[in-house]
Amino acid sequence: MTTTSAAPHLWAAPSATGPLDATVEVPGSKSLSNRYLVLAALGDSPSRLRGVLASRDTQLMAAALRSLGARVEEDGSDWTVTPGPVRGGVDVACGLAGTVMRFLPPVAALADGPVRFDGDPQARVRPMGPVLSALEQLGVRVEWHGEPGFLPFTVHGRGGLAGGSVDVDSSGSSQFVSGLLLTGARCTDGLTVRHTGATLPSLPHIAMTVEVLRAAGVVVDDSAPATWRVEPGAIAGRDVRVEPDLSNAAPFLCAALVAGGTVRVPGWPSSTTQPGALVPGILERMGGTASLDGDVLTVTGTGTVHGVDLDLHAAGELAPTIAALAALADSPTRLRGIAHLRGHETDRLAALAAEITRVGGHAEQTEDGLVVTPGPLTGAAWRSYADHRMATAGALVGLRVPGVAVEDVATTSKTLPDFVGMWSHMLAGSRAGAPA
Ligand SMILES: O=C(O)C1=C[C@@H](OP(=O)(O)O)[C@@H](O)[C@H](O)C1
Ligand SMILES: C=C(OP(=O)(O)O)C(=O)O
Protein backbone atom coordinates (compact mmCIF):
# COMPACT_ATOMS: atom_id res chain seq x y z
CA MET A 1 0.00 0.00 0.00
CA THR A 2 1.28 3.52 -0.77
CA THR A 3 -0.09 6.67 0.78
CA THR A 4 0.06 10.24 -0.39
CA SER A 5 0.95 13.22 1.78
CA ALA A 6 -1.74 15.82 2.31
CA ALA A 7 -2.89 18.59 4.61
CA PRO A 8 -4.00 17.31 8.05
CA HIS A 9 -7.75 17.77 7.53
CA LEU A 10 -7.53 15.60 4.42
CA TRP A 11 -7.27 11.82 4.44
CA ALA A 12 -4.69 10.55 1.98
CA ALA A 13 -6.63 7.81 0.26
CA PRO A 14 -4.35 4.78 -0.05
CA SER A 15 -3.58 3.43 -3.52
CA ALA A 16 -3.64 -0.30 -4.13
CA THR A 17 -0.28 -1.78 -5.05
CA GLY A 18 -1.53 -5.18 -6.06
CA PRO A 19 -4.58 -7.39 -6.38
CA LEU A 20 -6.73 -7.64 -3.30
CA ASP A 21 -7.40 -10.77 -1.30
CA ALA A 22 -9.61 -9.66 1.54
CA THR A 23 -12.62 -10.62 3.61
CA VAL A 24 -14.61 -7.66 4.86
CA GLU A 25 -17.14 -7.99 7.69
CA VAL A 26 -19.78 -5.33 7.18
CA PRO A 27 -21.89 -4.10 10.12
CA GLY A 28 -25.70 -4.07 10.20
CA SER A 29 -27.95 -2.32 7.71
CA LYS A 30 -28.80 1.29 8.50
CA SER A 31 -32.20 0.98 6.89
CA LEU A 32 -33.13 -2.22 8.73
CA SER A 33 -31.65 -1.05 12.06
CA ASN A 34 -33.69 2.15 12.05
CA ARG A 35 -36.90 0.42 10.96
CA TYR A 36 -36.53 -2.22 13.70
CA LEU A 37 -35.83 0.51 16.26
CA VAL A 38 -38.98 2.45 15.36
CA LEU A 39 -41.18 -0.63 15.37
CA ALA A 40 -39.64 -1.84 18.63
CA ALA A 41 -40.40 1.51 20.27
CA LEU A 42 -44.03 1.26 19.08
CA GLY A 43 -44.30 -2.42 19.97
CA ASP A 44 -46.46 -4.23 22.50
CA SER A 45 -43.49 -5.71 24.40
CA PRO A 46 -39.69 -5.39 24.55
CA SER A 47 -37.55 -6.28 21.52
CA ARG A 48 -34.03 -7.65 21.27
CA LEU A 49 -32.23 -6.44 18.15
CA ARG A 50 -28.98 -8.22 17.29
CA GLY A 51 -26.28 -6.98 14.94
CA VAL A 52 -27.59 -3.39 15.01
CA LEU A 53 -25.49 -0.83 13.17
CA ALA A 54 -23.85 1.49 15.70
CA SER A 55 -23.35 4.72 13.74
CA ARG A 56 -24.46 8.33 13.81
CA ASP A 57 -27.81 7.64 12.08
CA THR A 58 -28.78 4.81 14.42
CA GLN A 59 -27.53 6.63 17.55
CA LEU A 60 -29.66 9.61 16.54
CA MET A 61 -32.63 7.30 16.11
CA ALA A 62 -32.01 5.71 19.52
CA ALA A 63 -31.63 9.11 21.21
CA ALA A 64 -34.83 10.39 19.61
CA LEU A 65 -36.81 7.29 20.61
CA ARG A 66 -35.53 7.65 24.19
CA SER A 67 -36.75 11.27 24.24
CA LEU A 68 -40.08 10.07 22.91
CA GLY A 69 -40.44 7.62 25.81
CA ALA A 70 -38.83 4.29 24.87
CA ARG A 71 -35.93 2.68 26.72
CA VAL A 72 -33.10 1.78 24.35
CA GLU A 73 -30.16 -0.09 25.86
CA GLU A 74 -27.06 -0.69 23.76
CA ASP A 75 -24.70 -3.56 24.40
CA GLY A 76 -22.26 -3.52 21.48
CA SER A 77 -24.38 -4.40 18.49
CA ASP A 78 -27.11 -6.09 20.56
CA TRP A 79 -29.74 -3.59 21.61
CA THR A 80 -32.82 -3.95 23.80
CA VAL A 81 -35.80 -1.69 23.27
CA THR A 82 -38.60 -1.36 25.81
CA PRO A 83 -41.55 0.61 24.50
CA GLY A 84 -43.33 3.28 26.53
CA PRO A 85 -46.14 5.77 25.96
CA VAL A 86 -45.09 8.30 23.29
CA ARG A 87 -44.10 11.48 25.09
CA GLY A 88 -44.31 15.07 23.83
CA GLY A 89 -42.60 18.23 25.02
CA VAL A 90 -39.30 17.03 23.53
CA ASP A 91 -36.83 17.87 20.79
CA VAL A 92 -35.61 15.44 18.12
CA ALA A 93 -32.16 15.97 16.61
CA CYS A 94 -32.18 14.44 13.13
CA GLY A 95 -28.54 15.11 12.21
CA LEU A 96 -28.53 14.39 8.48
CA ALA A 97 -30.46 11.12 8.78
CA GLY A 98 -33.32 10.81 6.31
CA THR A 99 -34.68 7.86 8.27
CA VAL A 100 -34.90 9.94 11.47
CA MET A 101 -36.39 13.05 9.87
CA ARG A 102 -38.97 11.10 7.76
CA PHE A 103 -39.81 8.15 10.07
CA LEU A 104 -40.32 10.05 13.33
CA PRO A 105 -42.83 12.86 12.55
CA PRO A 106 -45.65 10.27 12.28
CA VAL A 107 -44.50 8.81 15.63
CA ALA A 108 -44.52 12.34 17.07
CA ALA A 109 -48.14 12.68 15.99
CA LEU A 110 -48.92 9.97 18.60
CA ALA A 111 -47.20 11.98 21.36
CA ASP A 112 -49.04 13.76 24.16
CA GLY A 113 -47.55 17.16 23.25
CA PRO A 114 -45.36 19.04 20.79
CA VAL A 115 -42.21 17.49 19.29
CA ARG A 116 -39.72 19.85 17.68
CA PHE A 117 -37.48 18.54 14.89
CA ASP A 118 -34.23 20.04 13.63
CA GLY A 119 -31.01 18.78 12.08
CA ASP A 120 -27.67 19.64 10.52
CA PRO A 121 -27.49 22.68 8.23
CA GLN A 122 -27.62 20.37 5.18
CA ALA A 123 -30.65 18.60 6.66
CA ARG A 124 -32.56 21.86 6.45
CA VAL A 125 -32.63 21.63 2.65
CA ARG A 126 -33.78 18.00 2.43
CA PRO A 127 -37.44 17.75 1.37
CA MET A 128 -39.89 17.12 4.23
CA GLY A 129 -43.16 18.59 2.95
CA PRO A 130 -45.00 15.48 1.70
CA VAL A 131 -44.79 13.46 4.92
CA LEU A 132 -45.92 16.43 7.01
CA SER A 133 -48.72 17.40 4.68
CA ALA A 134 -49.91 13.79 4.99
CA LEU A 135 -50.02 14.30 8.76
CA GLU A 136 -51.95 17.53 8.24
CA GLN A 137 -54.45 15.57 6.13
CA LEU A 138 -54.92 13.41 9.24
CA GLY A 139 -55.69 16.48 11.36
CA VAL A 140 -52.27 16.98 12.92
CA ARG A 141 -51.04 20.56 13.40
CA VAL A 142 -47.58 21.20 11.98
CA GLU A 143 -45.74 24.42 12.78
CA TRP A 144 -42.94 25.43 10.42
CA HIS A 145 -40.16 27.44 12.04
CA GLY A 146 -38.40 28.35 8.81
CA GLU A 147 -39.30 27.71 5.19
CA PRO A 148 -42.45 25.57 4.99
CA GLY A 149 -41.61 22.06 3.81
CA PHE A 150 -38.23 21.94 5.54
CA LEU A 151 -36.67 21.50 8.97
CA PRO A 152 -37.05 22.90 11.60
CA PHE A 153 -40.70 22.25 12.48
CA THR A 154 -42.90 21.13 15.35
CA VAL A 155 -45.44 18.32 15.19
CA HIS A 156 -48.20 18.98 17.71
CA GLY A 157 -49.07 15.51 18.95
CA ARG A 158 -52.48 15.05 20.56
CA GLY A 159 -51.99 11.69 22.19
CA GLY A 160 -53.05 9.55 19.24
CA LEU A 161 -54.03 9.38 15.59
CA ALA A 162 -57.33 8.25 14.12
CA GLY A 163 -55.69 7.53 10.75
CA GLY A 164 -57.65 7.10 7.53
CA SER A 165 -56.37 7.82 4.00
CA VAL A 166 -53.64 10.16 2.81
CA ASP A 167 -52.25 11.18 -0.57
CA VAL A 168 -48.52 11.73 -0.64
CA ASP A 169 -46.21 12.67 -3.49
CA SER A 170 -43.22 10.48 -2.74
CA SER A 171 -41.29 11.20 -5.94
CA GLY A 172 -38.70 13.08 -3.83
CA SER A 173 -38.11 10.21 -1.41
CA SER A 174 -39.54 6.78 -0.69
CA GLN A 175 -39.02 7.58 2.98
CA PHE A 176 -42.25 9.64 3.03
CA VAL A 177 -44.27 6.49 2.36
CA SER A 178 -42.14 4.32 4.66
CA GLY A 179 -42.45 6.77 7.56
CA LEU A 180 -46.23 6.83 7.35
CA LEU A 181 -46.51 3.04 7.02
CA LEU A 182 -44.30 2.40 10.06
CA THR A 183 -46.75 4.24 12.32
CA GLY A 184 -49.91 3.13 10.47
CA ALA A 185 -50.79 0.20 12.73
CA ARG A 186 -50.92 2.54 15.73
CA CYS A 187 -53.67 4.65 14.11
CA THR A 188 -57.04 3.62 15.52
CA ASP A 189 -58.50 3.19 12.03
CA GLY A 190 -55.27 2.08 10.38
CA LEU A 191 -53.78 4.00 7.47
CA THR A 192 -54.04 3.96 3.69
CA VAL A 193 -51.22 5.73 1.85
CA ARG A 194 -51.57 6.61 -1.84
CA HIS A 195 -48.56 7.84 -3.79
CA THR A 196 -49.59 10.56 -6.24
CA GLY A 197 -46.31 11.54 -7.95
CA ALA A 198 -45.13 10.55 -11.44
CA THR A 199 -42.13 8.55 -10.22
CA LEU A 200 -41.37 6.58 -7.07
CA PRO A 201 -37.75 5.94 -6.15
CA SER A 202 -36.31 3.21 -3.95
CA LEU A 203 -39.17 0.70 -4.19
CA PRO A 204 -37.05 -1.97 -2.44
CA HIS A 205 -36.94 0.30 0.62
CA ILE A 206 -40.75 0.45 0.65
CA ALA A 207 -40.85 -3.33 0.26
CA MET A 208 -38.47 -3.49 3.22
CA THR A 209 -40.91 -1.42 5.30
CA VAL A 210 -43.79 -3.71 4.35
CA GLU A 211 -41.69 -6.78 5.14
CA VAL A 212 -40.60 -5.62 8.62
CA LEU A 213 -44.18 -4.63 9.45
CA ARG A 214 -45.52 -8.04 8.41
CA ALA A 215 -42.77 -9.79 10.36
CA ALA A 216 -44.02 -7.90 13.43
CA GLY A 217 -47.54 -9.20 12.88
CA VAL A 218 -48.97 -6.12 11.16
CA VAL A 219 -51.39 -6.69 8.27
CA VAL A 220 -50.35 -4.72 5.18
CA ASP A 221 -52.04 -4.81 1.78
CA ASP A 222 -49.73 -3.68 -1.01
CA SER A 223 -51.66 -5.35 -3.84
CA ALA A 224 -52.91 -2.13 -5.48
CA PRO A 225 -50.41 -0.05 -7.48
CA ALA A 226 -48.78 2.78 -5.50
CA THR A 227 -51.18 2.22 -2.58
CA TRP A 228 -50.54 0.63 0.80
CA ARG A 229 -53.08 -0.22 3.48
CA VAL A 230 -51.90 -0.86 7.04
CA GLU A 231 -54.52 -2.36 9.35
CA PRO A 232 -54.66 -1.19 12.95
CA GLY A 233 -53.21 -3.61 15.45
CA ALA A 234 -50.40 -4.54 17.78
CA ILE A 235 -46.79 -4.40 16.65
CA ALA A 236 -45.12 -7.46 18.17
CA GLY A 237 -41.93 -7.13 20.18
CA ARG A 238 -39.32 -9.32 18.51
CA ASP A 239 -35.93 -10.93 18.71
CA VAL A 240 -34.30 -10.24 15.35
CA ARG A 241 -30.88 -10.22 13.72
CA VAL A 242 -30.08 -7.32 11.40
CA GLU A 243 -28.60 -8.19 7.98
CA PRO A 244 -25.25 -6.62 7.06
CA ASP A 245 -25.55 -3.32 5.18
CA LEU A 246 -25.16 -4.32 1.54
CA SER A 247 -24.89 -0.72 0.33
CA ASN A 248 -22.01 -0.19 2.73
CA ALA A 249 -20.44 -3.36 1.34
CA ALA A 250 -20.51 -1.85 -2.15
CA PRO A 251 -17.31 0.27 -2.06
CA PHE A 252 -15.33 -2.73 -0.79
CA LEU A 253 -16.72 -5.01 -3.50
CA CYS A 254 -16.04 -2.33 -6.13
CA ALA A 255 -12.44 -2.21 -4.90
CA ALA A 256 -11.93 -5.72 -6.32
CA LEU A 257 -12.76 -4.40 -9.79
CA VAL A 258 -10.48 -1.37 -9.42
CA ALA A 259 -7.43 -3.08 -7.93
CA GLY A 260 -8.06 -6.55 -9.29
CA GLY A 261 -8.24 -9.56 -7.00
CA THR A 262 -10.95 -10.75 -4.68
CA VAL A 263 -13.10 -9.27 -1.93
CA ARG A 264 -15.44 -11.47 0.10
CA VAL A 265 -18.33 -10.29 2.27
CA PRO A 266 -19.68 -12.88 4.73
CA GLY A 267 -23.27 -12.77 6.00
CA TRP A 268 -24.71 -11.94 2.56
CA PRO A 269 -28.43 -12.80 2.71
CA SER A 270 -29.83 -15.29 0.19
CA SER A 271 -32.87 -13.07 -0.18
CA THR A 272 -33.35 -9.50 0.99
CA THR A 273 -35.21 -6.26 0.35
CA GLN A 274 -31.97 -4.25 0.57
CA PRO A 275 -31.20 -2.53 -2.75
CA GLY A 276 -27.56 -3.46 -2.24
CA ALA A 277 -28.61 -6.91 -3.47
CA LEU A 278 -28.26 -5.40 -6.95
CA VAL A 279 -24.52 -4.83 -6.46
CA PRO A 280 -23.22 -8.25 -7.62
CA GLY A 281 -25.19 -8.01 -10.90
CA ILE A 282 -24.03 -4.45 -11.53
CA LEU A 283 -20.40 -5.41 -10.87
CA GLU A 284 -20.69 -8.33 -13.29
CA ARG A 285 -21.83 -5.89 -15.96
CA MET A 286 -18.87 -3.67 -15.11
CA GLY A 287 -16.24 -6.37 -15.57
CA GLY A 288 -16.21 -8.44 -12.38
CA THR A 289 -17.43 -11.88 -11.48
CA ALA A 290 -19.62 -12.53 -8.45
CA SER A 291 -20.66 -15.70 -6.68
CA LEU A 292 -22.54 -16.55 -3.52
CA ASP A 293 -21.16 -19.61 -1.73
CA GLY A 294 -23.27 -20.25 1.37
CA ASP A 295 -23.54 -16.78 2.85
CA VAL A 296 -20.24 -15.48 1.47
CA LEU A 297 -20.41 -13.14 -1.50
CA THR A 298 -17.18 -13.18 -3.51
CA VAL A 299 -16.40 -10.53 -6.12
CA THR A 300 -13.32 -10.86 -8.30
CA GLY A 301 -11.99 -8.29 -10.72
CA THR A 302 -9.11 -7.84 -13.13
CA GLY A 303 -8.46 -4.12 -12.72
CA THR A 304 -10.36 -3.40 -15.93
CA VAL A 305 -13.74 -1.74 -15.40
CA HIS A 306 -16.40 -1.34 -18.11
CA GLY A 307 -18.88 1.52 -18.41
CA VAL A 308 -22.61 0.76 -18.20
CA ASP A 309 -26.00 2.25 -18.89
CA LEU A 310 -27.86 1.79 -15.63
CA ASP A 311 -31.25 2.81 -14.26
CA LEU A 312 -30.68 3.19 -10.52
CA HIS A 313 -34.12 4.46 -9.50
CA ALA A 314 -34.57 1.41 -7.27
CA ALA A 315 -31.20 1.81 -5.63
CA GLY A 316 -30.23 5.49 -5.67
CA GLU A 317 -28.05 5.15 -2.60
CA LEU A 318 -25.62 3.08 -4.70
CA ALA A 319 -25.10 5.89 -7.21
CA PRO A 320 -22.10 7.67 -5.64
CA THR A 321 -20.21 4.37 -5.42
CA ILE A 322 -21.08 3.29 -8.96
CA ALA A 323 -20.25 6.76 -10.33
CA ALA A 324 -16.80 6.61 -8.73
CA LEU A 325 -16.24 3.17 -10.24
CA ALA A 326 -17.44 4.52 -13.59
CA ALA A 327 -14.79 7.24 -13.47
CA LEU A 328 -12.20 4.45 -13.59
CA ALA A 329 -13.81 2.55 -16.47
CA ASP A 330 -12.67 2.03 -20.05
CA SER A 331 -15.87 3.53 -21.52
CA PRO A 332 -18.58 6.03 -20.52
CA THR A 333 -21.37 5.30 -18.06
CA ARG A 334 -24.88 6.66 -17.98
CA LEU A 335 -26.78 6.56 -14.67
CA ARG A 336 -30.53 7.21 -14.96
CA GLY A 337 -33.61 7.45 -12.74
CA ILE A 338 -31.92 9.29 -9.88
CA ALA A 339 -33.12 12.92 -10.06
CA HIS A 340 -34.14 12.63 -6.39
CA LEU A 341 -30.47 12.37 -5.41
CA ARG A 342 -30.45 16.17 -5.53
CA GLY A 343 -32.27 15.97 -2.17
CA HIS A 344 -29.98 13.43 -0.51
CA GLU A 345 -27.26 14.27 2.06
CA THR A 346 -26.08 16.80 -0.52
CA ASP A 347 -27.02 17.38 -4.14
CA ARG A 348 -25.22 14.17 -5.12
CA LEU A 349 -25.48 14.73 -8.87
CA ALA A 350 -23.78 18.12 -8.57
CA ALA A 351 -21.25 16.79 -6.05
CA LEU A 352 -20.28 13.80 -8.18
CA ALA A 353 -20.00 15.90 -11.32
CA ALA A 354 -17.76 18.39 -9.51
CA GLU A 355 -15.44 15.86 -7.87
CA ILE A 356 -15.04 13.55 -10.87
CA THR A 357 -14.23 16.62 -12.96
CA ARG A 358 -11.77 17.87 -10.31
CA VAL A 359 -9.67 14.70 -10.61
CA GLY A 360 -9.60 14.99 -14.40
CA GLY A 361 -12.59 12.93 -15.50
CA HIS A 362 -15.69 14.30 -17.12
CA ALA A 363 -19.11 14.03 -15.55
CA GLU A 364 -22.23 15.85 -16.61
CA GLN A 365 -25.61 16.01 -14.99
CA THR A 366 -28.66 15.06 -17.03
CA GLU A 367 -32.23 15.74 -16.01
CA ASP A 368 -32.43 12.48 -14.08
CA GLY A 369 -28.85 11.34 -13.65
CA LEU A 370 -25.26 11.54 -14.67
CA VAL A 371 -23.04 10.74 -17.65
CA VAL A 372 -19.50 9.86 -16.60
CA THR A 373 -16.79 9.91 -19.26
CA PRO A 374 -13.51 8.58 -17.93
CA GLY A 375 -10.28 10.40 -18.67
CA PRO A 376 -6.72 10.21 -17.39
CA LEU A 377 -7.15 11.05 -13.70
CA THR A 378 -4.78 12.88 -11.40
CA GLY A 379 -4.76 13.26 -7.63
CA ALA A 380 -6.56 16.19 -6.02
CA ALA A 381 -8.53 17.02 -2.92
CA TRP A 382 -11.87 15.18 -3.08
CA ARG A 383 -14.68 16.98 -1.29
CA SER A 384 -17.20 15.03 0.77
CA TYR A 385 -19.97 17.60 1.26
CA ALA A 386 -20.72 16.01 4.68
CA ASP A 387 -21.90 12.99 2.67
CA HIS A 388 -20.66 9.57 3.80
CA ARG A 389 -21.07 8.08 0.33
CA MET A 390 -19.14 10.93 -1.33
CA ALA A 391 -16.26 10.21 1.08
CA THR A 392 -16.23 6.50 0.28
CA ALA A 393 -16.48 7.31 -3.43
CA GLY A 394 -13.27 9.36 -3.07
CA ALA A 395 -11.55 6.42 -1.39
CA LEU A 396 -12.46 4.22 -4.36
CA VAL A 397 -10.99 6.68 -6.87
CA GLY A 398 -7.89 6.96 -4.68
CA LEU A 399 -7.28 3.23 -4.96
CA ARG A 400 -6.30 3.76 -8.60
CA VAL A 401 -5.24 7.43 -8.61
CA PRO A 402 -2.33 8.45 -6.36
CA GLY A 403 -2.72 11.77 -4.59
CA VAL A 404 -6.46 11.70 -3.94
CA ALA A 405 -7.06 13.26 -0.52
CA VAL A 406 -10.55 12.91 0.90
CA GLU A 407 -11.83 15.86 2.86
CA ASP A 408 -13.67 15.07 6.11
CA VAL A 409 -13.50 11.29 5.84
CA ALA A 410 -14.97 11.25 9.38
CA THR A 411 -18.34 11.96 7.77
CA THR A 412 -18.46 8.22 7.04
CA SER A 413 -19.54 7.87 10.72
CA LYS A 414 -23.10 8.50 9.47
CA THR A 415 -23.34 4.82 8.59
CA LEU A 416 -19.86 3.27 8.89
CA PRO A 417 -17.74 4.76 11.70
CA ASP A 418 -14.75 2.45 11.08
CA PHE A 419 -14.62 2.97 7.33
CA VAL A 420 -10.94 4.00 7.33
CA GLY A 421 -9.94 1.04 9.49
CA MET A 422 -11.90 -1.40 7.34
CA TRP A 423 -10.47 0.07 4.12
CA SER A 424 -6.89 -0.25 5.45
CA HIS A 425 -7.61 -3.79 6.61
CA MET A 426 -8.88 -4.68 3.14
CA LEU A 427 -5.71 -3.29 1.56
CA ALA A 428 -3.46 -5.01 4.08
CA GLY A 429 -4.98 -8.25 2.80
CA SER A 430 -3.63 -7.52 -0.71
CA ARG A 431 -1.01 -9.98 -1.94
CA ALA A 432 2.38 -8.52 -1.18
CA GLY A 433 4.63 -8.08 -4.18
CA ALA A 434 1.96 -8.65 -6.79
CA PRO A 435 2.17 -6.28 -9.77
CA ALA A 436 -0.20 -3.28 -9.78
O1 LIG B 1 -35.85 4.01 3.71
C1 LIG B 1 -34.61 3.95 3.73
O2 LIG B 1 -33.99 3.38 4.62
C2 LIG B 1 -33.88 4.60 2.64
C3 LIG B 1 -34.53 4.94 1.49
C4 LIG B 1 -33.84 5.59 0.35
O3 LIG B 1 -34.21 6.96 0.38
P1 LIG B 1 -34.72 7.76 -0.94
O4 LIG B 1 -35.95 7.09 -1.42
O5 LIG B 1 -34.92 9.13 -0.42
O6 LIG B 1 -33.59 7.67 -1.92
C5 LIG B 1 -32.32 5.44 0.43
O7 LIG B 1 -31.69 6.23 -0.52
C6 LIG B 1 -31.84 5.78 1.83
O8 LIG B 1 -30.45 5.65 1.91
C7 LIG B 1 -32.45 4.84 2.84
C1 LIG C 1 -29.65 8.70 1.09
C2 LIG C 1 -29.04 8.17 2.15
O1 LIG C 1 -29.36 8.38 3.44
P1 LIG C 1 -30.64 8.90 4.23
O2 LIG C 1 -31.14 7.71 5.01
O3 LIG C 1 -30.12 9.97 5.13
O4 LIG C 1 -31.63 9.40 3.22
C3 LIG C 1 -27.89 7.26 1.99
O5 LIG C 1 -27.47 6.65 3.00
O6 LIG C 1 -27.35 7.13 0.87
UniProtKB/TrEMBL annotation:
<comment type="function">
    <text>Catalyzes the transfer of the enolpyruvyl moiety of phosphoenolpyruvate (PEP) to the 5-hydroxyl of shikimate-3-phosphate (S3P) to produce enolpyruvyl shikimate-3-phosphate and inorganic phosphate.</text>
</comment>
<dbReference type="GO" id="GO:0009423">
    <property type="term" value="P:chorismate biosynthetic process"/>
</dbReference>
<feature type="active site" description="Proton acceptor">
    <location>
        <position position="317"/>
    </location>
</feature>
<dbReference type="GO" id="GO:0005737">
    <property type="term" value="C:cytoplasm"/>
</dbReference>
<feature type="binding site">
    <location>
        <position position="344"/>
    </location>
    <ligand>
        <name>3-phosphoshikimate</name>
    </ligand>
</feature>
<feature type="binding site">
    <location>
        <position position="175"/>
    </location>
    <ligand>
        <name>phosphoenolpyruvate</name>
    </ligand>
</feature>
<dbReference type="GO" id="GO:0009073">
    <property type="term" value="P:aromatic amino acid family biosynthetic process"/>
</dbReference>
<feature type="binding site">
    <location>
        <position position="202"/>
    </location>
    <ligand>
        <name>3-phosphoshikimate</name>
    </ligand>
</feature>
<protein>
    <recommendedName>
        <fullName>3-phosphoshikimate 1-carboxyvinyltransferase</fullName>
        <ecNumber>2.5.1.19</ecNumber>
    </recommendedName>
</protein>
<feature type="binding site">
    <location>
        <position position="31"/>
    </location>
    <ligand>
        <name>3-phosphoshikimate</name>
    </ligand>
</feature>
<feature type="binding site">
    <location>
        <position position="317"/>
    </location>
    <ligand>
        <name>3-phosphoshikimate</name>
    </ligand>
</feature>
<keyword id="KW-0057">Aromatic amino acid biosynthesis</keyword>
<dbReference type="InterPro" id="IPR023193">
    <property type="entry name" value="EPSP_synthase_CS"/>
</dbReference>
<feature type="domain" description="Enolpyruvate transferase">
    <location>
        <begin position="17"/>
        <end position="421"/>
    </location>
</feature>
<keyword id="KW-0963">Cytoplasm</keyword>
<feature type="binding site">
    <location>
        <position position="30"/>
    </location>
    <ligand>
        <name>3-phosphoshikimate</name>
    </ligand>
</feature>
<feature type="binding site">
    <location>
        <position position="389"/>
    </location>
    <ligand>
        <name>phosphoenolpyruvate</name>
    </ligand>
</feature>
<dbReference type="GO" id="GO:0003866">
    <property type="term" value="F:3-phosphoshikimate 1-carboxyvinyltransferase activity"/>
</dbReference>
<feature type="binding site">
    <location>
        <position position="35"/>
    </location>
    <ligand>
        <name>3-phosphoshikimate</name>
    </ligand>
</feature>
<feature type="binding site">
    <location>
        <position position="348"/>
    </location>
    <ligand>
        <name>phosphoenolpyruvate</name>
    </ligand>
</feature>
<feature type="binding site">
    <location>
        <position position="126"/>
    </location>
    <ligand>
        <name>phosphoenolpyruvate</name>
    </ligand>
</feature>
<keyword id="KW-0808">Transferase</keyword>
<comment type="pathway">
    <text>Metabolic intermediate biosynthesis; chorismate biosynthesis; chorismate from D-erythrose 4-phosphate and phosphoenolpyruvate: step 6/7.</text>
</comment>
<feature type="binding site">
    <location>
        <position position="98"/>
    </location>
    <ligand>
        <name>phosphoenolpyruvate</name>
    </ligand>
</feature>
<feature type="binding site">
    <location>
        <position position="414"/>
    </location>
    <ligand>
        <name>phosphoenolpyruvate</name>
    </ligand>
</feature>
<dbReference type="InterPro" id="IPR006264">
    <property type="entry name" value="EPSP_synthase"/>
</dbReference>
<comment type="subunit">
    <text>Monomer.</text>
</comment>
<feature type="binding site">
    <location>
        <position position="173"/>
    </location>
    <ligand>
        <name>3-phosphoshikimate</name>
    </ligand>
</feature>
<dbReference type="GO" id="GO:0008652">
    <property type="term" value="P:amino acid biosynthetic process"/>
</dbReference>
<feature type="binding site">
    <location>
        <position position="174"/>
    </location>
    <ligand>
        <name>3-phosphoshikimate</name>
    </ligand>
</feature>
<dbReference type="Pfam" id="PF00275">
    <property type="entry name" value="EPSP_synthase"/>
</dbReference>
<feature type="binding site">
    <location>
        <position position="175"/>
    </location>
    <ligand>
        <name>3-phosphoshikimate</name>
    </ligand>
</feature>
<comment type="similarity">
    <text>Belongs to the EPSP synthase family.</text>
</comment>
<keyword id="KW-0028">Amino-acid biosynthesis</keyword>
<dbReference type="InterPro" id="IPR036968">
    <property type="entry name" value="Enolpyruvate_Tfrase_sf"/>
</dbReference>
<dbReference type="InterPro" id="IPR001986">
    <property type="entry name" value="Enolpyruvate_Tfrase_dom"/>
</dbReference>
<dbReference type="InterPro" id="IPR013792">
    <property type="entry name" value="RNA3'P_cycl/enolpyr_Trfase_a/b"/>
</dbReference>
<feature type="binding site">
    <location>
        <position position="30"/>
    </location>
    <ligand>
        <name>phosphoenolpyruvate</name>
    </ligand>
</feature>
